[in-house]
Write a structure and sequence with these properties.
Elements lengths: L5 H31 L3 H19 L7 H19 L5
Helix pairs in contact: 1-3, 2-3
């Protein structure tokens, strides 16, 4: 990887912090949905659709990317929680 200038480094750090906050927000939102929605199967279907949409948008070429794998794993974990219910988490 090429050396980054101070400005490029700051931009990258800003983007990473933004992404981290978005993932935290997503996790919080999904947990709230799981806890408040009476139909766990419906939540599971919603998360399954989001998983498929994300895979479709990102494409097969990004599948080996560790960040993409982490995000898809997060969705899978949320589906597991949705199936069990919040009390099982």
């Amino acid at each position: 990887m090429a050396n980054l200038s101070a400005e490029e480094f700051e931009q990258l750090m800003s983007m990473l912090l933004n992404m981290q906050s978005q993932i935290t927000g997503l996790t919080t939102t999904v947990r709230a949905l799981i806890e408040s929605h009476p139909d766990r199967e419906a939540v599971d279907r919603i998360l399954a659709r989001q998983h498929l949409r994300l895979e479709a948008v990102l494409g097969a070429s990004t599948a080996p990317d560790p960040t993409v794998s982490t995000i898809l794993s997060l969705l899978d974990d949320m589906r597991t929680i949705a199936r069990r219910g919040p009390e099982g988490s």
